[in-house]
Amino acid sequence: MTGMNHIAILPILIPMAAMVFNLLVGDGRSNRRIIGINIGFSVLLLLVSILLLTVLAQSSTAAAAVYPLGNWPVPFGIVLVADRLAAVMVLTTSILSLAALIFASARWHSRGTNFFPLFHALVMGLNGAFLTGDLFNLFVFFELLLAASYGLALHGGGRNRVRAAMHYIVINLVASFLFLIGVALIYGTTGTLNMADIARAVPNIAADDLGLFEAGVAVLGIAFLIKAGSWPLHFWLPNTYSSAAPPVAALFAIMTKVGFYAILRLWTLVFANQTGPELVFGQNVLFVLGIATVAYGSVGALSSKALDRLASYLILVSAGTLLLAVAYNVPGVTTGALYYVVVATLAAGALFLLKDVIDQVLPAEAQILAVSLEFYGDEEDVIDEDQEVSRSFPAAATLLGWCFAIAAIVMAGLPPLSGFLSKFAMLSAAFGAANAPTAATWWLTGALIVSGLFVLIAMVRNGINIFWTSLPDDGGLSLRPLEIGPIMVLLALCVLMAVFAGPALSYFADTAAFIHAPQNYIDLVLPKGDAS
Amino acid sequence: MELTLAIAIGILSASGVYLLLRPRTFQVIIGLSLVSYAVNLFILSMGRLRMDAAPILSGADANIADYADPVPQALVLTAIVIGFAMTALFLVVLLAARGLSGSDHVDGKGD
Amino acid sequence: MFVLAAPGEKYRGAAWVTAVVAAILSLLSLALFPSIANGEVLISRIEWVPQLGLNLTLRLDGLAWLFAVLITCIGFLVVLYARYYMSPKDPIARFHALLLAFMGAMLGLVMSGNIIQLAIFWELTSLVSFLLIGYWYHRGDARDGARMALIITGTGGLALFVSMLIIGRIVGSYELDDVLASGSLIVESPLYPVALILFLLGAFTKSAQFPFQFWLPNAMTAPTPVSAYLHSATMVKAGVFILTRFWPVMHDHQLWFWIVTYTGLATLIFGAYTALFQRDLKGLLAYSTISHLGLITTLLGMGTPLAAVAAIFHIANHATFKASLFMAVGIIDHETGTRDVRKLSGLRKYMPFTATLAIIASAAMAGVPLLNGFLSKEMFFTETAEFDPNVFVNLSLPIGATLAGMLSVAYSIKFVHGVFFGPPPTQLEKVPHEPPALMRRPIEILVLICLAVGIIPGITIAPYLAAAVHSVLGAETPYYSLSVWHGFNLPLIMSIIAMVGGAVIYVPYYRKLRDIDGVPLTRGLVGQRVFERILVTATNRWARHLVGAFGTQRLQPQIFVVIFLALAAGIAAGWTRMGNLPLPDSFDPVLGLVWLLGGISAIAAAQQAKFHRLASMILMGGAGLATCLTFAWFSAPDLALTQLLAEIATTVLILLGLRWLPKRSPVPEGTPWAARLRRYRDVSLAGLVGLATALASYAVMTRSAPEGISDFFLANAYKEGGGTNVVNVMLVDFRGFDTMGEITVLGVVALTVFGLLRRFRPASDSVERPEQQRVLDDYAPGSGDSVADDFLRIPALIMNWMFPVVVVVAIYMLMRGHDLPGGGFIAGIIMSLAFILQYLAGGTRWVEERLRILPLLWIGWGLLLALLTGLGAMVLGAPFLTSAFAYADIPLIGKVPMATALIFDLGVFALVVGATVLMLIALAHQSIRRPKVAGSNKPKQRAGLDKWN
Q1: Alpha carbon separation from C839 to C323, C755, C833, C843, C918 (Å, rounded)
Q2: What's the CA gap between C300 and C199, in Å, rounded?
Q3: CA pair distance C403, C400, nearest whole angstrom
Q4: Who wins on pLDDT, C405 or C17?
Q5: Mean pLDDT to the nearest integer, C8-24
Q6: Residue A502 CB neighbour total at 10 angstroms
Q7: CA of A353 to nearest chain C CA: how many angstroms apart?
Q8: Which among C587, C635, C701 has CB closest to B45?
């Protein structure tokens, strides 16, 4: 498929070009033209990723674009592998980034220096991490997206941002060291860095070195779990996300998914030709961590008063859900999980953006939720005639209400929207499995359902507080189209995902099948007889 | 000499980790540097130790067996650069935090 | 039909649009009767998620039809009624839109032929009802009622969803047809208990069965039309609907009998009992609804076909009379302005028509003969009176039924007598009068139905009931008679007892009953408050405590956890199969000495870092130096060089930053034991980490290298890559992509640093100038910054001369990089060090005035070069970053490899220079802000920075 090879690298080059453009031409200034060109880059990226996805979707299920950089033979050079999974993640990234960028171009880009280059750098890092097929190159792109995210997390400055960012930075620097140690151990025992080649080499590892190899994998796993936001490695996350500038936080919504992606990819690859106690052990650990993360996230969602904090706890809930799905290690469940990744990411992003818009229209004092009102108030509500007339809802507020409702329904996984469908897909696959229902099935079910309930309660509480008690009465709410537009688009996508769940899920089913049969991946990347 | 290097790595990482766990930002940054030394040496050690075998080829017809494994060196180079960048970044962040919170405690608490 | 109904939001029109839609729907559903009359089933299926067996299946059989008719017809009447009830000031469009949406959801629920789809519509009804109940959302009680309804029924819905999943698992399909055809499969499955419990949880919450009944009275804060609709015909009926729907495949089990029957009975009695003590008319009706739902549930629980018939019959009856009663109460409320029994009395004189209607309807509610309520109640009594071998059952059912009968008679009388009879009302703001005739029409129609069914059931209801019953019971449909007179038998006696007893309960105490406040005996058990408390406490207080307990905001614990887990994971995974470790074979004294010093300085650095920053930094440098030596030692010259330079650059940076940190001097007194304990803990963790890393590296080093990729690079570096320095060739060619990413990181970091320092605010205590300089100022007052220069004249001169030299060295390093140690990064650092020297010598101002380079542009150009090198290859059709090379002979320097990689390396060089200089300058620049920081010097600092921005 030489035709599409170059497509495989464009998602990395386009943001890089955008970055260069901003440094050379944009240099700090941000007039309409510059902004327009930046958005143009993002749109271009979106188009390319759509193209990539469609090309893959039309070709056979085992297809993927393998792109050897510098034209060096695999596994010696670095290789990009754009398979269905990568394509989905890249597409999600570009959708989310476009929305966030447009949103930011309304106000936020001017709250600090060099917003656009940092933004594109983050996108470049994300896409690179999704596309690369080389372990160390993955590290480089992780560093890139982290560096950019540090810059963006600090965007706008202020005491809280700086403190949260400092914690974020330290934790992730430690994570990077762990990453390096893991990579080093894997190289030391397998002698290669290419993921497929590692997978191929695993069976040939000397018996004595197995321990070292698995130690490396485990340390690497911890590094990924930190990125994926797993309990108890994620305490930095709520602070960082809720204190970051809204468009930035929206884009961050996909960063935890990078961890998930890395775990899923390496898990299925490295343990491909392997079964036995280590696998089971790792699976159980992952599962327990997933449960803990979901529990902590949903309880945190209940405990949080402000919407942005709630949103960042929702990020944790979805992170935990994904961990559970990976640990469950059944293609059907993975299918649902992939569907869930896309939906949850888009919805969470929309929620972060929505929070900013709501803040603009809300009276300041109403922004924290008065539980006491819920507890004591309302008795003194006397019902007299003129009170039995509902206030007429200003149109803008109605719009916001709808957006909020959709986001809430998706996040809580209530019917009939895509959040529900993803959970249904996971659960029915879990129940449909041969020896189901096992204890794991019940745990999974409980986690998904109960977390959904908690999220529902939290969202209802926030929604009532925002829209029913504290929204100003006058119809004159003013919304910037540049800001409400992206939100609506993101949520509309969530709805569309529900309407066209059939085709979407079948695509994800192929993806999951491909992931769970890693030999395809290995054969694809390493042509036969080309073993190092 | 393997043992020496191993111990060296151990000491570096130990003292680095200890500093990472300290409450003062300056301690943390020193710790980061120490740990990064340890990690770099660790990576290097993955290529096994060779003396006087720098991977500088003596021409086209060189016998590969005479040279050290270049891969870890390349990795370490990248790691050094990134480490340098990150140290610089953290330094500035801690200065900013210090400026904003008036304290050099990692949690921005007053002394 | 579904297509018409479900997306009700579309009809955002005024009342009449809704009315038309509702009318069309009801006519449609009525018209559909012939096609299902004799037992066949209409099915239309739209594929949604076929691979998961989730389709939009519309399935219309007798039962579904009966419900569809109830939903649409009563919906239509409610809309008419609302037209007059709702105040013109209300946003009527929203009301009607929601009402239609709800109608659609209910229709979808009763007509769904796919059990997952059923669960979906189930939740939809909960969601829409939330909005309907909270329609007057400015009222606190409305908000609470709505939230409570949503949370309770929503929870039930989730439970139902899971049970549907389990049933689907058992049956192997989510299609209702397959489920209904599965016979005793479900009951016999080991999963039955779980499925049943969850299933009932869903049904009971929705149908407000004990102990979930309390949301319903609170939902009465909704506008009366909503109550009339939701709580007579639709929402609460959904629960009993699915009980009926799944009755054939689930009822045949002891568990079902005991749970369902007795929950129903409890609800029946509790509801009736509580209703008796309500002051608010709507409250009274709400509790009576609860009790009637309990009655239906009991019937379904008993599991005999006849009971099922009775249940279905009573569902229809209850819908009719309860809807009319709600509307009547609405009228009273509307005309008198209150629903409080104590204020109302003697309204018969003011609104005779309404009074008559209400009286008939409540008579039906009480089960007076010649009304529909009587028939189904008779059937109920008959069933309860059936002999059962179990003595308890045999006694409890009939007695409970009769008791409930009495109570319901009593509260019916209370309703009628209290409101319409007695002296004229005194405490009303306005004089009540008949409502507009059209507002009464719906009630009239409904009451008419009550009468018709009650008197001539055989003609009116029989065929429809037959169809519904048959769709549920199929072959085992029993013989049943709808005739009014069954002869003088036990059920009749029970009815009579109920009638008389009811009167006996009411008459003597009616004043007390009217004025009594709250419910005796059960006053303590107010579901709402309990729920509120749980909701607030559990979901908020406890939540916050939990988050506090299992999370932390502080950094140190987080790092500790991270490192600890990493260590644990590594050991857990690796320990068992470490393999054996050989003893060291060789020892090198020099290296040993180097590391003796290196190790000591590392530990010392760790120990000094708190109080003597400068010292610990120098010590750290010592450790770094040892590292460099080691690199050189083990044949990694590039690493040695790079490490050294990076070391220097870092040191300079930290030195520049050091002065902004607060002064700290050792505290003389001993540290508290807690702190000391923590320190021990950290030391031990650190020690373990050190041990682990040492072991791992030692193990690896003493093993033979695996068959890896490294030979390839050695073999091809020269032939293919055109360079003899393999490492450099790897960096710019084999793994050039890594380098590209790496320099991007560097650039990004530089941007971040720049952005941060731009809004840098030094802390107050480090604002004033260090005393060394103050001392100097005393000698040369007023000459400002340059004073220090006087003492650095000579070195400054030397450094100025050195500048070009250093630059040349840098370029040389760059050129030769491909073949000998060197390369873009090294050259870049050297270059930027040249600038630093200028700073040290000339002072910030001096350099910034003469500065020739614009770091941001350098960064940009660096990236651009790297990018272009790659793209160039792409233009030629080869993959990104493919390199080509040739050798060019340049005088003085000699043979220089002109690989495209060199251009790439040039990019690296440019970027490194740009980034490093940017960081250094940005940091150094802070020093000249120092004197003015106290004041606001924003514009000035801008000017300073923008020069090289």
Answers
A1: 88, 21, 10, 5, 13
A2: 14
A3: 5
A4: C405
A5: 60
A6: 17
A7: 23
A8: C701
